Amino acid sequence: MKFLFVTLFPEQIEQAAGHSILQRAQARGLIDISCINPRDFTHDVHRTVDDTPFGGGAGMVLKPEPMVAAIRKAKEQLPNARVIAMCPGGRTLKQSVVEEYAACGQDLIFVCGHYEGFDERIFHWVDEKLSIGDYVLTGGELPALVVMDAVARFLPGVLGKLASAEEDSFSTGLLEYPQYTRPVDFEGLTVPEVLRSGNHALINSWRLQEALQATYFIRPDLLTAEQKQLIDGRLPLKMKKSERRFWEELRGKIAAAKELRAARNAAAASAEEGENG
Ligand code: 4FD
Description:
This protein is an alpha/beta fold.
């Protein structure tokens, strides 16, 4: 898969792509990364790429001529590519979007802007606007690199045998479960017994409970209606015994965590009262 960045700062892309997994993936020919600089498509002595906005206001706007000339060149090089402009106002990146890009069989052209943004007319040459989240950065390069990194992990061979992108958190729809490695005892903090039991059914069940619990507290919006019902609602009358035990155990853990949290909040409140009083 080929990734082409239309950017005024190609060094930033080359630097980020020159390490670790992305570097290895390029060396193996699994991905190809290149840049086109709109500044190379200017014709004045100052090589001007931006100008003041019509209607007034702060900041500068990227001029359409060099941007569109660079995008045209990019499309010439990758005729089968999707052209994605990184903007805070685009549709937000999610794992489902990442997987769609990885599977679509098209190369990707990222249009990266700076200053206050693009002249609106460049969007005639763009397929979609994409945002990595609700915040504004100084440029679109870091967001575009985020997208490329997330997509590259899904391409065959990029992660190597030991890891699988499909098994990750988010591809399962839940937050990750806690992980541990040696030593068993680190400064008095020990690895949960179940992970050392060698009982893989038990380990998988524990991990799923932990992932559900983390999601319940931190990202309840990710839980399905069915999962919410099984945690907070009444359990169905007909249910396999092992499954009922699974959900009852999880409810117990969640209730304990809530109690702990309430106790901590009460302690913090009385401490604050002590400070103020
Ligand atoms: N949240 C994102 C993308 C770009 C960016 C820019 C208009 C600003 C954040 C167009 C305004 C581009 C994002 C550059 N900041 N900054 O994905």
